[in-house]
Amino acid sequence: MGAAILPILFFTSLWAAVGIAGPIFTPRGPNQKLIKCLLVLTATCCWLFWLCCYLAQMNPFIGPKLTRSAIYIISKSWNNPLKEG
Amino acid sequence: MGSLFRSEEMALCQLFLQSEAAYACVSELGELGLVQFRDLNPDVNAFQRKFVNEVRRCDEMERKLRYLEKEIKKDGIPMLDTGESPEAPQPREMIDLEATFEKLENELREVNQNAEALKRNFLELTELKHILRKTQVFFDESVPAVYKSSTSHSSNKYRRYLQMADNQNEDEQAQLLGEEGVRASQPGQNLKLGFVAGVISREKLPAFERMLWRACRGNVFLRQAMIESPLEDPTNGDQVYKSVFIIFFQGDQLKTRVKKICEGFRATLYPCPEAPADRREMAMGVMTRIEDLNTVLGQTQDHRHRVLVAAAKNLKNWFVKVRKIKAIYHTLNLFNLDVTQKCLIAECWVPLLDIETIQLALRRGTERSGSSVPPILNRMQTFENPPTYNRTNKFTKAFQALIDAYGVASYREMNPAPYTIITFPFLFAVMFGDIGHGAIMALFGLWMIRKEKGLAAQKTDNEIWNIFFGGRYIIFLMGVFSMYTGLIYNDIFSKSLNIFGSHWHVSYNKSTVWNNKMLQLSPATSDYEGTPYPFGMDPIWQVATSNKIVFQNAYKMKISIIFGVLHMIFGVVMSWHNHTYFRNRLSLIYEFIPQLVFLLLLFFYMVLLMFIKWNRYAATNKMPYTESCAPSILITFIDMVLFNTPKTPAQGCEVYMFWGQHFIQVVFVLIALGCIPVMLLGKPIKIMQARKLANVQPITGADAEVGGMSNGGGGGGHGGAGHHDEEEMSEIFIHQGIHTIEYVLGSVSHTASYLRLWALSLAHAQLAEVLWTMVLSIGLNKEGWYGGVFVTVVFAFWAILTVGILVLMEGLSAFLHTLRLHWVEFQSKFYLGQGYAFQPFSFDSIIENGGSASGDAE
């Protein structure tokens, strides 16, 4: 159980691009400071939100409880055929 | 350019204007909108001010313009509104404007009076025409009634009879009186029937009849007929339904009585000739006169229309000009005339960065007025509290308004608005998280933004629309963030998106599935892939309707606390910026540091515990880190604070998550508890010591610490700017005590208060699910062509409920809760909010407010 490295790397670098590289490349103007602040805040909030959801599902304590019809539909449409027997 | 992070620096300036140039300079400053004038004559009556006559003249002009506007609106003529704002005219032009308005008003009044007189005339003629027609009917009706009594139906006889009726009016009365009446009149008594004819409004008719009957003891005879078409009342243009009546009576006494009653009921009487031939002549005369009158009326209306159309072109322009003139004179009334009577002195607040612009404007004004003496703008030193000015653009204006609604920031303290631009929509989105509803909101906001010029030009009075339009950027951002959180919650109209493939798989075989109504997947087996769904919530949870909430509750409660604690820490850190700016060393050491330490050691530690629990415990681990051993963070926290011994855990499990946790917890709680007396007593004791020192050595070298006594709510002036009022020591202790209790108890209650993020998102998700199960899924169940019709109806119903309940109602609710979180939980950590807003003298704002009666700057 644990975290896969690829999603973590991808999303962290995505929000780092917004929150760290973004402020470096904001155009000069009267609102430059404000735009930098907004970018940093957005990146922080969104990254943290994604991270919490990822960490919460990393080591789940319970599994989903499915009805019979739900299992049947899943086996058909999510390419998850039931074992014989 | 100033920034939004703090309010602008303001300076109190004195302005010396030459009397001739004053008008033009104030006009320029009004166009600029950067100066707030103070009233230098506060104790002078409004009627004793210098320019009261000019203001009166402006009022008079406005009255005339309003009269014109009313007349134009009555005729439904559209008024041209180019949206551009003409400059305030020179004082000498004011006389021209006055003359123009006077002329227009007089002309219009004259035309109206004429029209009214003509209409009255027209009304009388029309009523006369109806009377003549109807009375003919009355007299005609009496003929067949008598005729019926005779038996022969010869048409000759009938024609002869009519001739007789025409030529002998006495016979008519004889016919009306009937046989008995004729016999009764034989003895030579003059029992000739008199009659009056007139018109009365239909509503009064029954009462009229009754009154006649009672007053004349039934000795009068009333016939009436309704006039089918309504007649126009000349004074107010209403359409009134009237009836024609004719009253027959005998004798003069009854005549006077009848006439009096008619007067009382406002029935108009008309002279109706007795002979039918005369009546016909009169009718024709009346018709010709009506034709003539119609033409004259038409021409009068045309003339009036032309006058109004010509006025309508310029009306908006004139309104703006007059309002500007009035505003300038109101402002000039605030000025002081100096001793030499040559120049006017004004005091005003100006933003420091704009002094150049203002001086340019003043120079322009002096040039325009042709004066030689340049105006002088002098900066003054003052201890007064300057107004708070935040320079906003159309985007930041709405967020600043949200903050100002709670309280305008104190002068130069940290402005929460720039952070609110992101945290507000984000916290809203945590409560609202749904891709579909977020998309609806974002599209609505986007439409308003794209069409903002057009929509802003149509000035409506609809409050609700104005509120929505004013917050279009907020709505747009809320929608966009909601789409993001919806992606993470994996919720679009209560369904999930399966983009990356679920990381949970069913490994039961067919017979197990066949024999069990419900089956649970286990994270310890290969049911769970081992790594989580890469972006957001796994789509299988939406399918697992029975225990989705259990899993999501644990998740959402934790993130609510995480974001709540981080938001509050952010707030406390803002207070550090305030203390350093105002050089408030005492507050920095004895308030900020213990507050931060308290918050970090208790609540941020709890957040860290959450992350540790997420990391350490897993179903596939060995004891004691298996999922059944995971301790409840809430219980851990409570035991920590109350120094309880934790309950003995189950077999194989441990109480603590990591080595040294007990020791660390004890240390943290002790330090945090130790912070409380520091917060409570640190600053007051230091102040007491400083005062004792100042008393012993009476050197009034303003100690920075003494000067910086901005305790528990005092407004922040510049640090070290001299002494404030010496507050009593007991007051200071009390203030500090209140502040400390508020903070300590508040930290617990505010942390719990952030759980509303969980509560509202749960409610939203469940409402969406109810709409799906109870409404839309039923619609999708039916097959065939009638299923198509049915699903269309059901979809309409579902859409209305979605927009009305989920987007509007839940949106409003989440907006309110987010606002509360910002105003109370976030801002109470650092915000004083005791300033007053900067209200510059600006023509734009005056004209937007429709030129209120006192268009003055304050």
UniProtKB/TrEMBL annotation, chain A:
Membrane topology term: Multi-pass membrane protein
InterPro entries, per database record: ATPase_V0-cplx_e1/e2_su, ATPase_V0-cplx_e1/e2_su_met
Zinc found in the keyword field: no
Protein localization: Endomembrane system; Membrane
Record's keyword terms, sorted: Hydrogen ion transport, Ion transport, Membrane, Transmembrane, Transmembrane helix, Transport
Coiled-coil boundaries: none
Primary location class: membrane
One GO MF term: proton-transporting ATPase activity, rotational mechanism
Domain of life: Eukaryota
TM helices/strands, residue ranges: 6-25, 37-57
Keyword Heme: no
GO CC annotation terms, alphabetical: endomembrane system; plasma membrane proton-transporting V-type ATPase complex; proton-transporting V-type ATPase, V0 domain
Functional note: Subunit of the V0 complex of vacuolar(H+)-ATPase (V-ATPase), a multisubunit enzyme composed of a peripheral complex (V1) that hydrolyzes ATP and a membrane integral complex (V0) that translocates protons. V-ATPase is responsible for acidifying and maintaining the pH of intracellular compartments and in some cell types, is targeted to the plasma membrane, where it is responsible for acidifying the extracellular environment.
Similarity comment text for this entry: Belongs to the V-ATPase e1/e2 subunit family.
Quaternary state and interactors: V-ATPase is a heteromultimeric enzyme made up of two complexes: the ATP-hydrolytic V1 complex and the proton translocation V0 complex.
Protein name as catalogued: V-type proton ATPase subunit
Taxonomic path: Eukaryota, Metazoa, Ecdysozoa, Arthropoda, Hexapoda
From TrEMBL, chain B:
One of the protein's GO biological processes: vacuolar acidification
GO MF annotation: an example: ATPase binding
Subcellular location: Membrane
Keywords linked to the UniProt accession: Coiled coil, Hydrogen ion transport, Ion transport, Membrane, Transmembrane, Transmembrane helix, Transport
GO CC terms, sorted: plasma membrane; vacuolar proton-transporting V-type ATPase, V0 domain
Primary location class: membrane
Superkingdom of this protein's organism: Eukaryota
Keyword RNA-binding appears in the UniProt entry: no
Chain segments annotated as coiled-coil in the UniProt record: 51-128
Membrane topology of the entry: Multi-pass membrane protein
Positions of transmembrane segments: 421-449, 469-489, 559-577, 592-612, 663-682, 757-779, 785-809
Pfam families to which the protein is assigned, alphabetical: V_ATPase_I
Claim: Phosphoprotein is one of the keywords in the record: no
Family matches, as PANTHER family: V-TYPE PROTON ATPASE SUBUNIT A, VACUOLAR PROTON ATPASES
Purpose: Essential component of the vacuolar proton pump (V-ATPase), a multimeric enzyme that catalyzes the translocation of protons across the membranes. Required for assembly and activity of the V-ATPase.
Family: Belongs to the V-ATPase 116 kDa subunit family.
Protein name (Swiss-Prot/TrEMBL): V-type proton ATPase subunit a
Species assigned in the record: Drosophila albomicans (Fruit fly)
Lineage, highest ranks first: Eukaryota, Metazoa, Ecdysozoa, Arthropoda, Hexapoda
